[in-house]
From TrEMBL:
Protein name per UniProt: LALA0S06e04984g1_1
Compartments where located: Mitochondrion inner membrane
GO cellular component, one term: mitochondrial inner membrane
Keyword terms of this UniProt record: Membrane, Mitochondrion, Mitochondrion inner membrane, Transmembrane, Transmembrane helix
UniProt GO MF annotations: cytochrome-c oxidase activity
Transmembrane helix among keywords: yes
Species annotation: Lachancea lanzarotensis
Length: 60
């Protein structure tokens, strides 16, 4: 197994991108994270108008 430390060091230090975008596979991790984060933030905000008006969820 080859030691890739020097290669990775060159890759990370030569790039001007933000640290979390420097690795070639970072998009595979970041895009799903951003999508889940957006759903987690926007989902509860959809119920905010009902909360402000005092409308409670119907219990069946």
């Amino acid at each position: 197994m080859a030691n890739k430390v020097i290669d990775h060091q060159r890759l990370f230090q030569a790039s001007s991108k933000p640290l979390w975008w420097r690795h070639p596979r970072s998009a595979f991790y970041l895009y799903p994270f951003y999508a889940l984060f957006a759903v987690a933030v926007v989902g509860p905000l959809l119920y905010l108008p009902n909360t402000v008006r005092g409308i409670k969820d119907k219990k069946n």
